[in-house]
Specification:
It is built from four helices and no strands. By secondary structure, it is mostly helical. It has a domain of 48 residues. It is elongated. Helix 1 packs antiparallel against helix 4.
Amino acid sequence: MVFNIICVFILLACVGVNVCILMQNKRAGGFTGSVSGMGGQQTYWDKNKGKSLEKRLEKLTVITTVIFVVLTLVSNLI
């Protein structure tokens, strides 16, 4: 019974991790950023990145991943 409940929570955490990852924007850095001339400049977006939706999604991704790993380890022990 407990194992089935944990499996349901693992499934929900798995879906949550996937949704968080898919909602994140692709980074435009690297070669494309250096060719376009935005390599060393900081934009308004870069300065306020900590308050943005992208930063919140990164934090939520880490949290849901930790929950997924912990639940997986707990289910393995049961």
